[in-house]
Amino acid sequence: PFFQKSIGLLIILWISVWMLEGNLKDKFNMLVKNQVFFWALSSVFWVQLIGLFLSIDLNNGWFQIEKKLSLFIFPFIFASVSFSKQDFIKILNAFCYGALIAGVLCIIRSLALYSSSGDPNLFFYKSFSYFMHPSYFGMYINTACLVLLVKIHESFSNGASNQKKAGSILLLCFALILIILTNSKAAILTLGIVLILYFVKILLFDKKGIAFLIFSISIIIIFLSLVFFFPKPVDRISIAYESLKNKDNTKSTDDSNGTRLRLMIWEEALDLIKEKPFLGYGTGSSKSILTEKYKQKGMSFAEKGKYNAHNQFLQSGIENGMFGIITLLVLILIPFFIAIKYKNFIALGIPILIGVNFLFESMLGLQSGIIYTGFFLSLITFALKNNPMFSSTK
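Above: the chain's sequence. Below: its structure in token form.
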């Protein structure tokens, strides 16, 4: 979650190290071996690049290409190298602990601000999530939850010490609290899905994991208790529920309501896709096209904020038509099915996290989403595919 502004320099440094390591011939041979998956995972970038020919806003179009360049770089690098199981675990652990440290810093900052203002809202949503938008931070913390959940399961299976079990359980409980503090509906929903899927996995395939099964049920109960204990998430979920229940009346109500506004935006985005379903309006055109649509429909709040589609599939559909949507599905489904093949639940959970978040946010509009998506989906695909040892992982 740190060093968002320096991510470009870090990627350049990473590429430099990759080149200075040598063995370029071996790396090229491995890239050729993995070329089908490389082209498939980087197809989002290529469709965006081709979409520039249709763009009505080339300045923004080239800016989008610059931001999404990592969707080419990550598949390229990962397709050319082999990762051991230990390397894979180290990367996941580093990300997990980094996200939790960011959460600690957010709490410290909120406490410091609260001591002078006394405003409890400082502990929730944008006021709490200092490093990035709460939806993205929630996705990062959900990844940490995924890693910790598998770590705890392994500690039960391997007979680890009670101290290690307790440490991981405490970290997971802390991560659950962070999810609540982000106050992100998408993060809460996604975590619920992941917890239930893992519970079902244990129920169906781990007949000896009775202790962990009881633990999983306890975690689900704790999570639900936290959701309803904190008033902010409950309020947002209640408002979202009412908006969905009255979705047929969205046009007659205040468009500043988050969920209601999102439903209205989705409706307009779908109308735009229907007008140009095959090729779309061109890369970088969605902002100006949507803003004009908001103006026509009297959606002043969305027009003033120049809101994107708040759904990556719709966003890509507007800019690149069905080809944009298909490449997104390819990007998610390839690592998803590879994770199923190698029975790796962490690798399976990450595409699920990304896919669900794509439904509620245009995740490839900001570096926080682009880097996470490109890095982890490429890592999952090629780390598992290039190393048969992963076939025995959790």
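The chain has a mean pLDDT of 87.
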